[in-house]
Here is the input.
Amino acid sequence: MLCGITTQQQFAPTMTDFRPTYDKSFDRIAADRLPALLRAMPKAELHMHIEGSLEPELIFALAQRNGVSIPYASVEELRKAYAFTNLQSFLDIYYAGASVLLKEQDFYDMAWAYLERAAADNVVHTEMFFDPQTHTARGVPMETVVNGLHRACTDARSKLGVSAALILCFLRHLSEEDAFETLEQALPYRDKFIGVGLDSSEVGHPPEKFARVFARCRELGFHLVAHAGEEGPPEYVWSALDVLKVERVDHGVQSTKDPELMKRLAKDRIPLTVCPLSNLKLCVFPDLSKHNLGALLDAGLVATVNSDDPAYFGGYMNQNFTETFAATGLTRNRPGSSRRTVSRAASSTRPPGAPTSSGSTPSSRASDRRRRAAPPAAASPPAHRRWLPATPSASPAAPAGAEWRRA
Ligand code: HPA
Ligand code: ZN
Here is the structure.
């Protein structure tokens, strides 16, 4: 594998050996070769919302298939609406886009489109968030959502050689009671998702609002993650760690405002799943060159690069890597950066059965992966038990205009 990196941040069974090793050859990589290497490198994606992978073309196709009318005349017009000023302005359109999803096949098609795209970017392992409340609130059964997504994950392993897992997210703008109900509805399908997370409007909805439901999920043996410190203050990251007891923090970029928190994250090696193009699109940073990924890495944190909602934020994994490394100067020549910091940002990982570095091109590696694709395991234990821990403008109700109506 390029750079010989192994990391701890994925919930996969290779966790016993997570100590990073750094290949000295990284020092000799010329800056102009870095984009090709970043693209070719096997990667783990640990922060993406599957509903955020719905491309405008697929939104239109599903709307037509399901008889849902959408308030945009064309794909181009819809794409033009993707001019966000903050998280809430994005969420309003993101929830509306999801309202074209009605049937199990719709969820499958959405996930499959993402998984094919991820495979093309040499993503060998992905943990995909899904938001069941967005769908059950519209009368779509939990079974429809989970089965469609899970079938795509199963096919990804056998047909693309990509290992894919699901993380159920609770919507934090809704109540904890609603989250408990969602958990109840999801438990019959507990073998089809590995953990739970927390997403949606952050400010005004601190992690502690969900203390009891996360405690219950912990008892049930699920992995725990939460969005914190995307727009919200460092206090939200502290409470994600200390109240929810999460194993990873999604985003976490506001942590640099609190030196004690930075020390804690570094000491406990809590991974941050950073999403640079998302942060840019949602105006968390004024431009990509001002992104603090380099500062997080320089402080010794485990910070990874991810796409978040790639259809809305202008890039999948490779775009996030290449644009961010170029804009922030994350190469060995960057003042204060080292081989170590660059390597850690790469979040490169090798799940069991994934290809090793062989000097092959990205496309030949993708076809290698398909050849090697493993058949699904026969009688495997429930997913949340199978994958062991790594060591580890808010609206009160659904955002206004969140749903496009069926014609
Ligand atoms: N933040 C919070 N909730 C989300 C996001 C995000 O970036 N994307 C989808 N739901
Ligand atoms: Zn996110």
